[in-house]
Amino acid sequence: MGDLYVWLISFFFLIALLALVVFQLMCLADLEFDYINPYDSSTRINRVILPEYILEGLLGAIYLVTGHWIMALFCGPYLYYNVKLYTSNRHLVDVTEIFNMLHKEKKQRLFKLFYLVFLLFLSIFWMILTALEDHE
Q: Rounded to two decimals, what is the model's pTM?
């Protein structure tokens, strides 16, 4: 029963991460179509980047502590990329360079989105499998 709770927690963490990445993509799309100015867009994106990194780190730590090694390995590249961006101070969106980097930033967020959807499907699969094993 404890594993089921771990999968439920990871499910909600992944939903929260997906919401943060979709929010960033919406801000970039609004900027691209001139619905929002660059300052507001970069401020909104920068406000949610650190919570995204913290949630991903917590998710990887939960997988490690509970012994779900495969999922922890799947979280590894995403976590490594985030740590690499943070340590090189490239994690925040610059107001003056946001138009020049718009295509790259959108591509980066889309890759994160697809990667998180993949992790979500794996988490749902393991949650269903655990629930069926607990039911028997």
A: 0.93
